[in-house]
Design brief:
Order of helices and strands: HHEHEHEE
Mean pLDDT: 89
Largest sheet: 4 strands, antiparallel
Strand order of the largest sheet: 2-1-3-4
Oligomer: single chain
Shape: globular
Distance between the termini: 19 Å
Radius of gyration: 14 Å
CATH class: Alpha Beta
CATH topology: Alpha-Beta Plaits
Length: 121
């Protein structure tokens, strides 16, 4: 099953953003994808199991209807696209909306450099 907008992930992720991150010493060869997830608190709670399987962190706060889950990735286009597609698919299974995906250098908001990698159509 192809979800609306999933095919748009491919080709939308700018290699230039990945190159900027690779050139920034705050990133190294790894990064965190921060997913802005919105939905019913129960749906977000149910989605956590799949996110934990992806080694996600920052999974608290669903009571307000949003999570800012961070999933580790290598700074490599194919892995980034696969991870974005997998999280969006997981969100669809749980009726959770993914609005934005940022590429972050750290899980710490105060010290992290980030680039917006993808925005929902």
């Amino acid at each position: 099953m192809v979800l609306p907008g999933l095919s748009k992930v491919r080709g939308v992720i700018d290699d230039g953003v990945i190159q900027l991150a690779l050139a920034d010493n705050r990133f190294g060869s790894n990064a965190w994808l921060t997913f802005y997830l919105f939905g019913d608190p129960e749906a977000l709670r149910a989605m956590k199991h799949g996110l934990i399987a992806m080694d996600a962190v920052n999974l608290d706060g669903e009571e307000g209807g949003c999570l800012y889950a961070k999933v580790p990735v290598q700074l490599e286009r194919t892995e980034i696209e696969r991870t974005v597609t997998n999280v969006r698919s997981l969100g669809s299974e749980h009726d959770v909306r993914v609005d934005i995906v940022d590429l972050d250098s750290s899980t710490e908001v105060a010290s992290s450099k980030f680039f917006t990698l993808w925005t929902a159509p």
